[in-house]
């Protein structure tokens, strides 16, 4: 067992580096966690994210990915906003970019900070080995975060923290060391169902379960083709991700933007951008504007597709000339979205 002093020092170092939450749990398999992943995949709730199915055994438990792992160090970094993320709901000609994507790519910021913490640990325990993860590896970061006590998986399925609400990015370090385990986070959702009621697309078949196929985050970021016509009006002006279920969580009252990691500050020009400007991006302009942003990942075509659905939903005749120009776009999915948007604008009262 790792001595208590090293474990305490590690928590302090995590905090010094900018993680607001740090907890420890076992790397051993947890049958309930594995069964719930199985159920999620079995019901097809992951949609076209085949990579979830492909590495199911590794995802189900830390030791499934790395048999030598003994402990998981779960970490949380705050990205608490200082403005109301829902404020642009009533301004249809503005584009809503979810809070998590308004600043620098969190993958880079969290990964870099995890690596700094990893270096610190290896210097003190050179005989040990570790691996660091954020988001992209087959790791179930949310249930591991809950098991390590940094919060609980709320009814919107994300980890909620008593101190930082729903605005935490998660990261994990798998280690060959035996750390003492923290007490798992206790579910404090109670009778609240604000997130369930706030979801514009009814993406929760029941509390604690998400059907990604209906989630705007999935539709605008992960989904490659055309979005089904009956879902398009529900996207509103959300062009990259969605914050609605997170933003209404009452535990956010304890979140404070002062605890946000310095490198996660939002870019001013993404706070209330005009749809009109985004509709004019060509490939080079898109890549230049979103350099260092997670948005760059989806490419110009999917981004403009999303902006066209939002333009259609705005019903704004002022956007019609730009939309009309995109009806003959080289990308058939963009052209389809433009035709849909134009029809919707024409039909608007
Ligand atoms: C795939 C994925 C998505 C998909 C699917 C999301 C999902 N809920 O599965 C999509 C694209 C929709 C998505 C959206 C978002 N994501 Co995402 N996503 C992931 C990813 C890569 C894997 C998640 C996963 O394993 N899903 C599989 C299912 C099985 O997991 P689950 O939701 O945990 O399912 C549990 C519950 O259903 C529960 N359960 C089931 N039945 C029951 C019954 C009861 C009674 C109870 C109590 C529980 C329970 O058990 C299951 C297993 O624990 C993680 C990163 C990672 N590697 O972990 C990020 C991650 C979850 N995403 C994150 C974020 C920030 C978002 C968005 C907020 C982004 C945005 N603003 O648009 C939205 C939030 C949408 C939402 N409400 O979940 C963060 C969440 C941080 C946090 N505090 O929890 C993560 C951890 C990335 C990170 N490193 O920070 N995401
Ligand atoms: S992110 Fe938006 S669409 Fe997805 S579950 Fe939450 S409220 Fe619903
Ligand atoms: S909004 Fe309510 S039900 Fe949803 S996660 Fe927060 S406390 Fe739980």
UniProtKB/TrEMBL annotation:
Q: What is its EC number?
A: 1.17.99.6
Class in the EC hierarchy, top level: oxidoreductase
Give one Pfam hit by family name.
QueG_DUF1730
Catalyses: epoxyqueuosine(34) in tRNA + AH2 = queuosine(34) in tRNA + A + H2O
Q: Tell me the InterPro entries matching this sequence.
A: 4Fe4S_Fe-S-bd, 4Fe4S_Fe_S_CS, QueG, QueG_DUF1730
Which pathway does the protein contribute to?
tRNA modification; tRNA-queuosine biosynthesis
User: Which protein is depicted?
Assistant: Epoxyqueuosine reductase
Q: Which PROSITE patterns match?
A: 4FE4S_FER_1 (PS00198), 4FE4S_FER_2 (PS51379)
Q: Which residues bind [4Fe-4S] cluster 1?
A: 189, 192, 195, 249
The record's similarity note reads: Belongs to the QueG family.
Q: NCBIfam families from the entry?
A: tRNA epoxyqueuosine(34) reductase QueG (TIGR00276)
Keywords on record: 4Fe-4S, Cobalamin, Cobalt, Cytoplasm, Iron, Iron-sulfur, Metal-binding, Oxidoreductase, Plasmid, Queuosine biosynthesis, tRNA processing
**Domain (4Fe-4S ferredoxin-type) ranges:** 177-209
Main localization, broad class:
cytoplasm
Record's cofactor remark:
Binds 2 [4Fe-4S] clusters per monomer.
Q: Which Gene3D superfamilies match?
A: 3.30.70.20
């Amino acid at each position: 067992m790792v001595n208590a002093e090293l474990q305490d020092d590690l928590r302090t170092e995590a905090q010094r580096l900018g993680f607001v939450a740090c907890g420890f749990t076992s790397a051993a398999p947890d049958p309930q966690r594995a069964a719930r992943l199985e159920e999620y995949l079995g019901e097809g709730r992951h949609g076209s994210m085949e990579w979830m199915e492909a590495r199911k055994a590794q995802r189900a438990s830390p030791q499934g990915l790395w048999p030598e792992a003994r402990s998981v160090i779960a970490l949380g970094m705050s990205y608490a906003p200082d403005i109301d993320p829902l404020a642009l709901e009533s301004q249809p000609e503005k584009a809503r970019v979810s809070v998590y994507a308004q600043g620098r790519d969190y993958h880079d910021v969290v990964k870099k900070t995890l690596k700094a913490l990893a270096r610190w640990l290896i210097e003190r325990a050179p005989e040990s080995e570790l691996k660091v993860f954020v988001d992209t590896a087959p790791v179930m970061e949310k249930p591991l975060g809950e098991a390590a006590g940094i919060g609980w998986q709320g009814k919107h399925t994300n980890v909620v923290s008593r101190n930082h609400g729903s605005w935490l990015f998660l990261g994990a370090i798998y280690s060959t060391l035996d750390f003492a385990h923290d007490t798992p986070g206790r579910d404090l959702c109670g009778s609240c169902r604000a997130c369930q009621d706030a979801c514009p697309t009814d993406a929760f078949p029941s509390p604690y379960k998400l059907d990604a196929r209906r989630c705007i985050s999935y539709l605008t970021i992960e989904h490659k083709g055309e979005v089904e016509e009956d879902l398009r009006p529900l996207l509103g002006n959300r062009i990259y991700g969605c914050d609605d279920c997170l933003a209404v969580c009452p535990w956010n009252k304890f979140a404070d933007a002062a605890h946000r990691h310095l490198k996660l500050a939002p870019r001013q020009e993404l706070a209330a951008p005009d749809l009109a400007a985004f509709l004019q991006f060509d490939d080079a302009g898109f890549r230049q504007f979103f350099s260092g942003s997670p948005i760059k990942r989806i490419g110009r075509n999917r981004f403009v597709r999303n902006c066209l659905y939002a333009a259609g939903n705005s019903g704004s005749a002022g956007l019609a000339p730009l939309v009309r120009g995109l009806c003959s776009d080289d990308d058939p999915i963009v052209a389809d979205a433009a035709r849909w948007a134009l029809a919707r604008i024409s039909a608007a009262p």
